[in-house]
Amino acid sequence: MDVPAPDSQPRPEIPDTPSLELLQRAQAGDPTALDQLCARYLAPLRRWAHSRLPARARDLLATDDLVQETLLRTLKHIDGFEPRRPGALQAYLRQAIANRVRDEIRRVARIPGHDGNEETLVSSDPSPLEALIGAQALARYESALQRLGDEERAAVVARVELGCSYAEIGAELGQRTPDAARMMVSRALIRLAREMADGV
Amino acid sequence: MAFEDALQHLSLRVSDRDPVDWRRALEDTAPAAVERRILEQLRIVGEIAAWHTGGGAPATAESTAALASDAALTAGLTSAVSTADNPGAAVPPVWGHLELCERVGNGAFGEVYRAWDTALRREVALKLLQLEDSASPGTGAGAALEEARNLARIRHPNVVQVYGAEQHDGRVGLWMEFVRGRTLDAFVREHGPFGAREAALVGQELCRALTAVHRAGLIHRDVKARNVMREDGGRIVLMDFGTGWERNPDPGTRPHIAGTPVYMAPEVLQGASATPQSDLFALGVLLHYLVTAQFPVEAATVDELRRAHAAGQVTLLREVRPDLPEPYLQVVEAALAPDPAHRFASAGQMERALGATLGIAPAAGNAEAPAEMQPAASTAGVVEPASGERLPRRRPVLVAGLVAAVVVAGVFALQLRRPASDTARTPPRATALPRQSAIPAVSDGYRVEAGFMRRRSGARTALDPGGQVAPGDGLSLEIQSSAPVYVYVVNEDERGECYLLFPLPGFETANPLKPDIKHQLPGRRAGGTLVDWEVSSAGGKEHLLVVASPQRLAEFEADLLALPRAESGGAAQYAQLSQASKLRLRGIGSLQEVGDSGPGPNSNGRLAALAAQLPRTAEVVEGVWVRQVEFENPVQH
User: Fold this and answer.
1) Cα–chain-centroid distance for residue B205?
2) Got the DSSP string for B64-78?
3) Which residues, in sequence order, are CB contacts of B203 under 8 Å at separation 6+?
4) Which tens digit of pLDDT belongs to each residue from B440-495?
5) For residue B457, how many other CB atoms are within 10 A of its CB?
6) Residue B174, beta-bridge partner list
7) Distance (Å, rounded) from C-alpha B631 to C-alpha B637?
8) What is the pLDDT of residue B384?
9) pLDDT value for B577
10) What are B456's strand-pairing partners?
11) Which residues 6+ apart lie within 8 Å of B51 measured at CB?
């Protein structure tokens, strides 16, 4: 017996294929494309879920299992999904995981012995990210993010929250080179900081 | 620099995840109030990015701190991490066989990168050294490579593992395991002082680390809170030997003062050579710091520090934390004795003394314990409890379980040391135990539920005992306990070859496992990739032994850690083999042929006598839990 048989390649591949193209191939039944999408999104979505779940919920849930299961299920049943803007797939996947987390928190809240107060569980227990930068700063960030254009928002989320490489961002957002993607992210960050400063 | 230029420069650094000295950025840019607000928000975005990238670490400086040495008098108050002095420094894409992913820190020594080892396909930390004049003592390529050679001698779970060192493109670099986690200093600054029990547990792990370091003939010389990482998953890792020094330098060579002054023993500050006792002094400072967030001696300069030591101006721990258990106070005070002869004789002795804090007695009649590990309470000023005096009464079930576990460990160790052919002929003898094991204190009953899972063609299903596996299958163990437990998993094949399957170095999933969470072993690599054990060959049966204990079984673990471990490179090796070869091989770690003589003698009857079969239902147990499971692994024709 030997270790390991990775769920996905330990190093995310530098993609030449845009995610939307992979998605279309996956929707057409190409299992390789589905694998590549999983490999591309699993690790960053796990990091994202870890940072956003309330600490108490993270103790209750096997977060990684939850993310993996949700990602696989979502991708396998994504036939009806039609991306209408850049970064739509990553946003769709994040939303799917957020919904799954919410369901799980509700389920846990129904366990006998629990106080049953879903709001308490969710709101009184800050996520690690909230604990780090403060609820107000995080709210300011989220709010400013929504005021960015679609491409800018997708670039920020991909780089800041999902930790995607510039090559991945370029493939996702139609930039021809990683350096072009880097400059795009930089400009988006400046715009984001200005928007956040307006909210101070 | 104009504000817009500075803003673009800083946004690129945030995007590149390079550390930023924000205070200096503000000072240099001298922005107006509105511009200052923008920079402040960009800093927040940088923190958010660092959080996501680091998997929990709040800032890049966090991981850097563990690798950077600094000479700040009060470590933790001064950030030694900044690339502001070197703006725009390009990240070279490759160095030798390593692909550089991102810079995670820098300092006077050079830079640290997260990198990808293309040969062994694993994530590593690369320390690229900024060499000084090679004529200076202790510097230059030769000294750096010497440092790496010294470090590579040490293999211990509590010591960062150095993989290698080379010189490329005029730069010397050493690469090591990439530890994801946080420094103890960061824990104290963010969460406040530790409790005595938690600090004592950390102290014991560091004692074990120092025992390994000292036995290799080395002195660490820079034990401090910023050089100790708590890896995600709980492993305590002693880092950064950048100032390491041979125990026996050439006669007449005057050692240079290196390390962090506030942790330095008084004799080292006066110019004496570092010794194991000076490392233990530093550990004493660390244990003081962990429970107080203060240092026993505070000073603004090294001269002040020397004078404070000479005048005995040392803050006793009992003055600051009189609430702590007396054994803990005594350990710290003994470690901080001004005269090195009055400190602990060894790290092992200090570990035993910390055990008293935890209510764990030393092993009775530990014949193999070196003389230096015997108590020296009269000089150290630590009063050890009489045997059994402070221990809860041992229950037979615990002893039986523990003895079984230790006997099994002995079996494995014996097999490992025997030539393969000998192993195949002679069943192992449980009487030839390499050592006795310490008996931990009895814990209350706890609940364990465990079961194996098989992944085949992407589908993951439960695998009951007696189930069938085949090459290419991924196996994992799901285990959940109502209490924190240390779990060990060993695989034994028909030939009696044993491999340690868990815990594995470089994994986020590590002992002790948190309670009330279903863990999947072997778990997650540093970096987040979930892995399975891979069935890499066929023929016969796979026997797996699972041991769980609410307390760490230190000596049992030492035997287990001596077993060969399944390596990640094995899969690649295996993949290159023909199908015919795969069927003739047993265990990628050894690549030894089975031949046509059929399976060797089955030593597993002994295991069966020691351990119950693994059920899939929850069990309530006390003490050590030992279970075995067997899977059919027939040759596929």
Assistant:
1) 9
2) HHHH-----SSBTTB
3) B283, B286, B287, B290, B331, B350, B351, B354
4) 333 346 788 888 888 887 778 888 877 888 777 788 888 988 888 888 887 765 55
5) 6
6) B127, B165
7) 18
8) 30
9) 32
10) B459
11) A51, A128, A129, A132, A133, B57, B58
Q: Are B540 and A16 in contact (CB under 8 A)?
A: no
Neighbours of B557 (CB within 10 A): 21
Residue B51 to residue A51, Cβ atoms within 8 A: yes
Low-confidence ranges of chain A (pLDDT < 70): 1-16, 50-65, 79-80, 83-86, 102, 104-128, 130-132, 200
* Chain A residues touching residue B14 (CB < 8 angstroms): 189
**Average pLDDT across chain B, whole number:** 66
A and B: number of Cβ contacts within 8 A: 173
Q: How far is B503 from chain A (nearest CA, A)?
A: 12
Segment B239-245 mean pLDDT? 55
In chain B, what residues touch A48 (CB-CB under 8 Å)? 52
Question: Which residue in A has a C-alpha nearest to residue B115's C-alpha?
Answer: A11
Cβ pair B504, B489 in contact under 8 A = no
Complex-level ipTM: 0.72
The reply to whether residue B518 touches residue A10, judged by beta carbons under 8 angstroms, is no
B residues 405-444 lying closer than 8 A (beta carbon) to A: none
What is the pTM for the complete model shown? 0.40
Question: What is the mean predicted confidence (pLDDT) over B176-200?
Answer: 86
Tokens of B544: 């797996």
What is the phi/psi pair of residue B290, to 5°?
-60, -35
